[in-house]
Every structure is written in structure tokens, then in C-alpha cells.
């Protein structure tokens, strides 16, 4: 695979057609128009072989799409709309053109599904395969939801279900032969960024703080609270779990709630909201068709605490989440 | 080194103070204001260990600054002004905190020198060290200079001097013990993006096409011409070479002109311009204090040809440029 050949292939595949893309992939830089008065939102993320993915357990196409979804999830977590992507790929000179083609197909799948445009790319030789994505989006400045706005007494909400991706990773990693676990595996390999919900929550001023759950509920909830000396109380019984999640984790001898709390890579939205916004949050759930579950509340206590159905505190060793798969 | 510790360190170091940075490093995404009617310019580039750099031959601080300079050079080559950076770093978990500190110091040096702001970052474990930089800039859409505007008969100009970086790399790679070569080594390790010249050339409408010389004069000149079936004739005698370049390359038994033509990583600006803009190009050189040399002209011939002082054509095998250092 020659670098020039690969770049030409990519430039052809990702030729921009939108009028806002004044210059797309293939020049020194992309030149882009933003809407009037929109703020630019920018985020960068990398998936690294052996750390965030293994080439043995997923196709290049799945990997390409996942890289897109992970990158734009960060844009969605600000309440913003992702518009553009720049992709830097590192791969061995012995990796085949089919690998790059598969990866590109996955990136294209993601771009098409979420109506975004790849406007810049870069290809380097590297002994470790990595995919870096920089996502650019737009938001009206007033609608931006930061990580830092939570207040004591706020409700804590999470979209969708938790732990599916972590369970899928367990199934992928082991030779468990568990039947019925395919849905969990695909939640891990093909996460769905909650863009529409994030935008609605932001536009309606519902969230006081928001983040996407990538490192696991525990660690991401800490990011929303600990900086201001706040904490949280979460009821395990209120955690949204998929049908079959408890029984399949049990068959894998996994502590299901520990997985749901610390597993990571859910790419659900976690947000805080004052109590008077409850009806508005429920309406967003109804309109978007995505479950939004109230799982606890922000406290002044400085710690994240979990309680079981008997209202006993449950302690998790959540320090060691690894993305390894 | 814990990832959280390192991220906190980076977020503290790169806290934004500009009012246009509504949210800087440390949230899911950065939120940025652009000037009214400015277009966004975006580019991404990666330096990979063993391909673009070796940790034995340069300090982390030099590497950090080089990553900044290489990234913003692509913005300058559009005639745009770089404003923001997002950095994704991959390093081994055994790499020391000093390595990250040194690298950050270099990034900070670059940001301060070129008045740009690091607004996003990401740290991953990786067996191969890499530094990805996405640079964001602004340009008035009318002033953008693309790679694609060259016309037959246009003059070809290059800023500064050619080949210094390639010679520096030769000196770095060998155990030559060549005295007086330090300046060439620092041209390789600490390139200077030609931002001011790029902006002036763009604002005055001088360039019909422009690129920064990263892969070497030959290959980058091809990018300005070959897509439209154009070619170029370049006079070796007109190539701008530093004092001492010919003699030191000779002492290293290198073909000096081959180095200057194919060496790469010059990060000078290469642009084409119609003959009636000659006085304007000279004025930019005078105002900026940077040499701008006319080295040849665009032809309809579809090939890049080099001629020596006796007007004999000289052939170079320029296919194999490697960034390896």
C-alpha cells in the first residue's frame, strides 16, 4: 500500500458535496463555513490497538464506524451538533489496502448515518495501529452544557441502558460460548452516540451538567461532581439495565451491578438537572424514544455512594477500568 | 504516571485566558468563537516514533514544539491564521511524567510563540509514541489559497532556504562529527512555519496556488501541478541554499542538490504566481524579512524538470523520501 495511493483513495471516497465545505479533504487544510453566530465545538479522541480495540475481535469496518461514534459522542455531550471530522490513521506498512478500505467504509457508514463530513485526513506508518478523530460541531453558545454546572439536590439522569458494552466486551474477550449475548457484543463494537437527546436536553435548558459515559458511570459521575466538592447518591435498583443483562452476567460469573457502574464505553448521556425540570426530561424521553432514567441525586457530601434495594450502601472497587478488549 | 494525573496537569498548564475560548481543555469538547464572517480552517497531522522522530535524537520539549509547528504550517499554507490546537498523545505507560512535562513545555513554547491556544487534549496508552495535532485557524474565505490554482506560465517561488532540514537529519543520523552543522540540525528539529509570509501572500492575492514543503520540493511541486496535467521547470542555480550548505553536504558525501530537491521537512512555502505579481512578491519579501526566491516556472508539459547551470536537464530519483530520522 503506497501512502499516496491510500490518500487518493480516501480523498475520492470522502469528496465533500455540502456547500459549507469550501475545501474538503486533499488540500493542506479544510476550509469550512459555520452558521452565523454559531460557536465552534471541537474534540479529539484516539482508539489505539491493544488498548481500545483488538483487530482479532472486530472488522475494520466496525472499527471505523466506532471511531466516528466515539468522537461525535463528545460533541453530543455538549448539546452540540457534530458537523465535520478529521481522521489521522496510523498503520503498519504491511497492513493491506483492504484494511484501509474496510476502515474507510466504516467511517463512511458513520458519516452517512449522522450526517457529518470527513474533511481532513492523514496517514502515517506506525507499528501500533491507531485512529485519531477530531470532531467539529456547532452550537449556539447559550445552549452549551458543560461538565461543571451540577448543584446539590439536582436529579441525576442517564439515557438508554448501562453495562451492555462492558458485558459485550466480557463476552468478546472470553470463550464463554454464551448464547443470546450478540446484542451486548454489538453494543460494545457499535455504540450509538445520543446526539438527538443531547441536543434536546441542551436546547430546553434541562441539564445543569452533562457528560457522555465513556469511563463508566462511577468515574464519569465523579467528573460532574467532585471538582466542586459535590457527591452523589445512586440507587442500584434505578439503574437502567437491558433485558437479559442480569442473567447473562450471572452466567459469566460477573457482578452485574459492578459492570453497570464501572464498565465504561456505554456512550450514554449522564446529566444532572434540577427537580423542577422532571416533566421536561420525561418529555424529551417521550419525543426522542430514548429511555431517560432518574438514578439518584447530587449531594454535598463529596463522594459517590451506591445503595441497594435494602438501602444498604454497596462499595465498588472502581479504580481500575481498562478499555482493553 | 496516571492518566488522570497527566490530564489534570495538562488542563492546568493550558488553561485558556482568551475570551474567544468559551470552554477550553478539560470538558468533553472545546467551545470556541470565531470572528464574524471568518471561515474555519482545519488540519490534522501526526508525528510517529521511529517514522517522524526518534526519542534518542531530540528532547521531548523539541518534539512538542515541532508538533505544533508542523501542524500550524498547514494552516499557514492556506493563507490562514492558526488559532487553536487539539493534541492527542499516545505513549507507553512506562514513559515518565517528565516526558509528558517536557513535551507539554514544548507545546507551550510553540503556542506562546505563535499566539495559539491548546483547547483540547487526549492521552492514550500506546506501544508506539505518537503526537497528533489538529490545528484550527481562521481565514476570510476570499483569501484562501488552495493547491489547485496554478496556471501554465506562472512563476514558482519558495521562501527561505531548502535542504537545511534534510542536511540536519543526515548530520543527526550519522556519526559524522561534522563541525558547524548545528544550525542545520536545529532547522530539522525546530522548523519555523512561515505564517506571516503566507498570510501576506494570501491577502495580497499574489499566489495562484500554495503548499508548505513537507515532502520535499519535487513531490510538493508535483502536488501543485500534476493534477491539472501541468509540470514545472526549475533552475538548480536559483534554489535558495544556506551558506555552508554545499560544502557541508559535500563533506558528508551527499549530493547537495538532490537533498535540496527531495529532502523534505523544510516547512517553507512553495507558491505559484503570475508574472505581473513579481513586484508584489518582492515587496512581501522586503516587508517580512524572509527571502522569497523565484526558482522556475509552471509548464504545460506534465513533468517536473530540473536544469543545471549549463541548462542540462538533471534527473533525480525522488520517489523514496522517508521521514525517518
What is the CA–CA distance across the termini of chain A? 27 Å
Question: Under the CATH scheme, which class of the largest domain in chain A?
Answer: Alpha Beta
Helix content of chain A: 25-40%
Largest sheet of chain A: 7 strands, mixed
Describe, in plain words, how this protein is organized in 3D.
Two copies of one chain form a homodimer. The first copy, chain A, is α+β, with helices and mostly antiparallel strands and 325 residues long. Chain A has two domains: 3-143, PurM-like, N-terminal domain (60s Ribosomal Protein L30, Chain: A), CATH 3.30.1330.10; 155-314, Alpha-Beta Complex (Phosphoribosyl-aminoimidazole Synthetase, Chain A, domain 2), CATH 3.90.650.10. Chain A has ten helices and 13 strands. Chain A has a seven-stranded mixed sheet, sandwiched between helices. Chain A has a four-stranded mixed sheet with strand order 3-6-4-5. In chain A, helix 2 packs parallel to helix 3 (97-114). Residues 320-325 of chain A have low confidence and may be disordered. At the A-B interface, strand 2, strand 3, strand 4, strand 5 and strand 6 of A face strand 2, strand 3, strand 4, strand 5 and strand 6 of B.
Give the arrangement of secondary structure elements.
2 copies of one chain form a homodimer.
Chain A: H1 3-13, E1 21-23, E2 30-32, E3 38-48, H2 60-76, E4 81-91, H3 97-114, E5 117-125, E6 130-140, E7 155-159, H4 164-173, H5 182-189, H6 195-203, E8 209-212, H7 217-225, E9 231-235, H8 245-251, H9 256-262, E10 269-273, H10 278-288, E11 292-299, E12 304-307, E13 313-314
Parallel strand pairs in A: 4-5, 9-12
Antiparallel strand pairs in A: 1-2, 3-6, 4-6, 7-10, 7-11, 8-10, 9-11, 12-13
Amino acid at each position: 500500500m503506497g501512502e499516496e495511493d491510500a490518500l487518493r483513495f480516501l480523498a475520492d471516497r470522502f469528496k465533500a458535496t455540502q456547500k459549507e465545505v469550501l475545501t474538503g479533504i486533499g488540500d493542506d487544510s479544510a476550509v469550512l463555513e459555520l452558521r452565523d453566530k454559531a460557536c465552534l465545538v471541537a474534540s479529539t479522541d484516539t482508539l489505539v490497538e491493544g488498548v481500545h480495540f483488538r483487530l482479532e475481535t472486530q472488522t475494520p469496518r466496525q472499527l471505523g464506524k466506532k471511531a466516528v461514534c466515539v468522537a461525535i459522542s463528545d460533541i453530543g455531550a455538549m448539546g452540540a451538533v457534530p458537523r465535520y471530522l478529521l481522521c489521522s490513521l496510523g498503520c503498519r506498512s504491511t497492513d493491506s489496502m483492504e484494511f484501509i478500505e474496510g476502515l474507510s467504509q466504516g467511517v463512511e457508514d458513520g458519516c452517512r448515518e449522522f450526517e457529518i463530513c470527513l474533511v481532513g485526513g492523514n496517514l502515517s506508518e506506525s507499528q501500533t495501529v491507531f485512529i485519531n478523530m477530531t470532531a467539529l460541531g456547532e452550537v449556539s453558545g447559550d445552549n452549551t452544557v458543560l461538565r461543571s454546572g451540577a448543584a446539590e439536590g439536582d436529579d441525576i439522569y442517564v439515557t438508554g441502558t448501562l453495562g451492555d458494552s462492558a458485558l459485550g466486551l466480557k463476552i468478546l474477550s472470553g470463550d464463554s460460548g454464551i448464547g443470546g449475548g450478540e446484542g451486548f457484543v454489538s453494543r460494545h463494537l457499535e455504540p450509538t452516540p445520543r446526539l438527538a437527546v443531547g441536543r434536546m436536553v441542551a436546547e430546553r435548558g434541562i441539564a445543569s451538567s452533562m457528560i457522555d459515559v465513556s469511563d463508566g458511570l462511577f468515574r464519569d459521575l465523579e467528573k460532574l461532581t467532585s471538582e466542586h466538592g459535590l457527591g452523589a447518591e445512586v440507587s442500584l435498583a434505578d439503574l437502567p439495565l437491558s433485558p437479559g443483562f442480569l442473567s447473562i452476567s450471572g452466567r459469566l460469573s460477573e457482578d452485574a451491578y459492578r459492570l453497570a457502574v464501572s464498565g465504561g464505553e456505554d456512550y450514554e448521556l449522564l446529566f444532572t438537572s434540577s427537580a423542577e425540570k422532571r416533566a421536561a426530561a420525561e418529555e424529551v424521553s417521550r419525543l426522542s424514544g430514548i429511555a431517560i432514567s432518574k438514578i439518584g441525586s447530587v449531594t454535598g457530601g463529596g463522594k459517590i455512594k451506591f445503595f441497594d434495594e435494602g438501602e444498604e450502601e454497596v462499595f465498588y472497587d472502581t479504580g481500575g477500568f481498562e478499555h482493553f478488549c
